[in-house]
Design brief:
Mean pLDDT: 92
Number of domains: 1
Low-confidence stretches: 1-21
Oligomer: single chain
Strand content: 15-25%
Largest sheet: 6 strands, mixed
Strand order of the largest sheet: 4-3-2-1-14-15
CATH superfamily: Metallo-dependent phosphatases
CATH topology: Purple Acid Phosphatase, chain A, domain 2
CATH architecture: 4-Layer Sandwich
Distance between the termini: 62 Å
Number of helices: 10
Order of helices and strands: HEHEHHEHEEEEEHEHEHEEEEEHH
Structural class: alpha/beta
Radius of gyration: 19 Å
Number of strands: 15
Length: about 300
């Protein structure tokens, strides 16, 4: 633990004196960029990145650093007219262009019905994972993915909140079961650790801090989770929080922030430093991705026509 603390302190000092807020520390083996609870705010707005700026950030990071993974912790595809009128496809298309790698479904991602979510999954150029969502006793989505990057194996499994039972219309999830997250966590951490011998285990959860089914409760009862990329509680965690040996990160809401975790995998244990990139800083530094801007202009026109009945 002392070695971990010293490593984290060293990386933090590098961050502090790097001179540019968006510049990561040198020597990171892996950079995780993450979002959560965007709720359809895929267009740029005052204080919001939207997908055009998120895409610019991702593009820049991937141009400068070899090992970058981009994760979304759910409640993304529903929430604004440009998404709702088109049943979520505008969000998926913009995420494809931005360059996301993995997403977990949030409770409001079921708002168009689980059948529609399965249709949208077919359009996703990224993985949709959930280890505790069942239909007729079978997993509805793949439970985990393995990403091999920079000579390391990264195992990512998904957890979807059982609060979905009461936070989307019952008609949207007829026949769907949200299984016990601790049970799912234990099962898939063991698979990732023992069968794949991964170097890093990430829980990608739309679970949230606090309450009876909290993400910290999962980490308390499931050993072996290195990083928990969380959502649902809209928490702003500027430097992440450590609970039960797991680093928890969230990036607030609505694309006000994009989360970043810098990871050194060269030692016996991963060394991780979390931070947030604000919309204000990102908008000041980056030009929006023109292809995403054009996509959203077309989506806005199509949504308007549908809403007007044309």
């Amino acid at each position: 633990m002392l070695r971990r603390s010293l490593s984290i302190l060293g990386l933090s000092i590098l961050l502090l004196f790097s001179g540019i807020l968006i510049q990561p520390a040198a020597g990171s083996d892996l950079i995780i960029l993450h979002s959560n609870d965007i709720h359809g705010r895929i267009e740029m707005d005052e204080g919001l990145m939207g997908m055009p700026i998120i895409g610019a950030l991702i593009e820049d990071y991937r141009a400068r650093y070899e090992n970058v993974l981009v994760l979304d912790a759910g409640d993304t595809i529903h929430g604004r007219p440009v998404t709702n009128a088109l049943d979520g496809i505008s969000t998926v298309n913009s995420m494809n262009l931005a360059g996301y790698d993995v997403m977990v479904p949030g409770n409001h991602d079921f708002n168009f019905g689980y059948e529609r979510l399965l249709e949208l999954e077919e359009e996703m150029e990224f993985d949709l994972v959930a280890a505790n969502v069942f239909k007729d006793g079978e997993l509805l989505f793949r439970p985990y993915v393995i990403k091999e990057i920079g000579g390391y194996k990264i195992g990512i499994f998904g957890l979807a909140t059982p609060a979905t039972y009461t936070t989307t219309h019952p008609d949207n999830i007829v026949g769907i079961e949200f299984g016990d997250m601790v049970e799912a966590g234990r099962k898939y951490v063991e698979i990732l650790r023992n069968d794949y011998q991964v170097d890093l285990v990430i829980a990608l959860g739309h679970v949230g801090l606090g309450g009876d089914n909290s993400s910290t409760r999962v980490a308390e009862q499931v050993a072996g989770i290195d990083l928990f990329v969380d959502g649902h509680s809209h928490s702003r965690l500027p430097e992440g929080e450590w609970h039960h040996g797991t680093l928890f990160v969230q990036a607030n809401e609505y694309s006000k922030y994009l989360g970043r975790v810098e990871i050194d995998l060269s030692g016996e244990e991963p060394q991780m430093v979390a931070s947030l990139i604000s919309a204000q800083d990102a908008i000041a530094q980056y030009e929006p991705v023109s292809e995403i801007v054009e996509l959203l202009e077309e989506a806005r026109d199509e949504a308007r026509q549908k809403m007007l009945g044309f």
